[in-house]
Structure formats: C-alpha cells, structure tokens
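Hi R.,

Here's the input for the oxidized coenzyme A complex you asked about:
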Amino acid sequence: MSPTKVIAVEVPDIGDFESVPIIEILVAPGDTVAVDDPLLTLESDKAAMDVPAPAAGTVKELRVKVGEKVSQGTALLTLLPAESGDGEGAPANDGPQTPALQESPARSATGESPGPVYASPSIRRLAREQDIDLSSVTGSGRKGRITADDLNRGPAPPQGAGPGLGLDLPPWPSVDFEALGPVERVPRSRIEKISAPNLARNWVMIPHVTHNDEADVTDLEAWRKQLNQEHAADGIKLTMLAFLIAACVATLKEHPNFNSSLDGDELVLKRYWNVGFAADTAGGLVVPVIKNADRKGLLQIASELGELSGKARAGKLAHDEIKGGTFTISSLGGIGGTSFTPIVNAPEVAILGVTRAAIKPVWSPEESSFQPRLILPLSLSYDHRVIDGAAAARFVAHLARVLCDLRRALL
Ligand code: CAO
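And here is the predicted structure with oxidized coenzyme A in place:
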C-alpha cells in the first residue's frame, strides 16, 4: 500500500486575468470536502469565480489569505484525498491540481455587510436579484453556508410560528420517476431558477383575483395597419402591445391605485409610469420595462419594445432594464388564448393579461344588426388587499374604452 499523497491545489486557468484577489476562503484546515465543493472565491473586475475541490478529501494547509492576489498556478491549499475503497489513498494524478473554475455571475457592489451570513458571491447575487434578505435564510451547507436550494426554500419561519403563520404543508411528493419509465433530466435555466421562487412567493402571498373583459379594437387595428404602412420605411413595427402600453398608462393615470405598491400600512402611489412586458425567451420568462412610458409617443414605445425584446431574446438585458416597473402587461395575443390568470409581479399590485383578438358578432343598436367587430380579451389580475372588484371592473372598462377610441387617451 503506497502512502497517501497530498494534492496541491493551484489557481486554474482564469483567462486573461492576472493578480486576481481572493475575496472569500470557504474552508479551513481539517474541513472535509466533496469533489467540486467550492474552496475559495476569486474576483476579477468582470466576474466572481469559485475554485472547486478537484477531489474529495480533507483540507490540510491553507497557503493563501483573503485579499491576497493570485494568478494561474499560484498554490492555494493542500488537500489530503479521501481514502479510496481499495486502500490506495491518492488518485492517479497526484501532484498539483488545477480544477476547472466554476464561474459565478459578476458581483455588483452593494456594500453588503459581511455579518454572520455565510454565502458565496453567486448566492449573494441570486439573493439580491430575488430581493431575499440572506440573514433571514437558514443555510444547510457546510458551516451553515447558504446554498441555492436554501434560497429557493425562502426565509425560515419565525421562531414560535404556530398554525396560521407557517404554511405547514406536507412534503413535496417524492417519486422515483426513473423506476416508472425512461426520463430525461434537463437543467433549469438561470432565469427559470430565479423566476420560479418569485412566482411562487407572489402566488402564495398575494390574494389574486382576475377580472375578464373585452375591448372592441376594430378601429385601433385599422389605424395600426395604416400607421405600419406609413412607417414601413422606418423599420419600426407598431405592435398591438405598443398601443396597449399607451392605453394602460392613460388608464393608470385615472386609477392611481393600480400604479401603486403596498408598504406596511401605507400605499405608495407612484407618479411615474414604468410599464413592464412579459417576454418569452429561450432561457425563460423575463420582464423588460419601458421607463417613463407616459412621456413617450407610440413610435418611441414601439421602437423600445423592439429593442428590449431583441435584447431579451439574446439574453442581453441589463439589470436596470428589468427593474423599476410599476405595472406589467403579459401579452399572449400573438399565440392564442381567450383568457388566463397572470400572476401579479410584486411589488406591483396589478398585471394585465392579453389574449388573441378575434372577429365576433356585436349587436349594433344603430344598425339594428350584428356587426363583425375585432374583440380583444383582457384579463386583469390584481392584489385584492389593495384593489376591490368594483375598482378592477372600472379600470378594465376604462381601458376598453380607451382601446376602442385612443383619442380618449388624450383627455
Ligand atoms: N390578438 C391577435 N393577434 C395578435 C395579438 C392579439 N392580442 N397580439 C399580437 N398579435 C399578432 C400580431 O399582429 C402579429 O401578427 P403579424 O405578424 O401578422 O403582424 C403577431 O401576433 C406577433 O406579434 P408580435 O410578437 O410581433 O408582437 P407582440 O407585441 O404581440 O409580442 C412579445 C411581443 C415580446 C410580448 C412576445 O414576443 C412575447 O414574448 N409574448 C409572450 C409573453 C408571455 O410569455 N406571457 C406570459 C407570461 S405569464 O404571465
């Protein structure tokens, strides 16, 4: 039996970067680690990167300190590999090990105080994106380290929370799918991992009601087509969504509670109108925001819609472009449907769902006959803590009137 050999873990290839500071050391001598467990975190000016353990074992000696600058090949620590089953301690390739780097998304400077929270920069960034206070999350990792699963579980219930405070749900069903038949396991995208817990929180925390109505958009659609012909050379396509944004802003101004947020015992009425729109991308659902939509004409809204949708599909939206919304529109009209229940995008209090417009017979008292009209279904979900049913019905009726005749938006 050969003696157990120690692995010297070095900084792997970190691209063009030199002298990158160590911002966090996640292990101490004596700690046991599994293969791929993060050992320490480096931060370049572009990204934070976790250096994972190349093998399972016990940390023997740290050779660096937090703040020290390192480059490719710098010795970081030594690792005593776990004994293998046949008693041979070391893996075949003992000697210096340069594990593949696990890149974390860029860490933005927020001045977060270190405190007792033990989490990597990538987890801190996820928490910021999901507006989760890390100090309220119980870490299940080594030494209470917070993992992505802990974030998804959400805050720990308050101490002493009894029935009525916690949800007290039975565990999620555990099924051995593979035993039942062939399956394929597909990793969830980063966007899906962020949006899923947010959607679950909003659905659970907000008492949702959805109000359905219809708008006659026959004249609007004729005007849209005419405008698109006139502006064909400009490369701007006026979509129904652009008109919906303008009409929603006009309606929100008349119904300020729909452009608000709950803040404890106060309702914050916002005097700015930033309208988000749900965009379906290969990576998942994102909501870019048209800022100050009240100050923009239809052509500018249409042009920004095109630009933000393109960026959304390319996964290139900046953080600022998905922040600050005051109301959201989710349009499935290009795909189909007659109604649905969109989930309110907290801390907003209402969201408009739009499905496919269709020609329907509408009774005309003037003509004493049914007329073919283009009817657009509208589904408004709202937070019933802030908005009551009558207010929602008035809001959507107002919106339908504006869509029927956009001149009303100027009133
Ligand atoms: N009724 C009938 N037709 C409609 C329509 C409606 N309500 N809305 C759009 N259309 C038509 C358009 O006229 C267009 O037809 P043409 O190509 O013949 O002109 C076609 O559908 C496609 O429209 P578009 O995609 O160019 O424009 P859009 O503004 O409707 O959509 C966007 C843009 C980003 C909203 C869309 O691409 C998208 O991602 N939709 C999905 C949003 C989503 O997933 N929501 C659910 C989230 S869960 O709440």
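One thing worth noting: The chain has a mean pLDDT of 86.

Cheers,
M.
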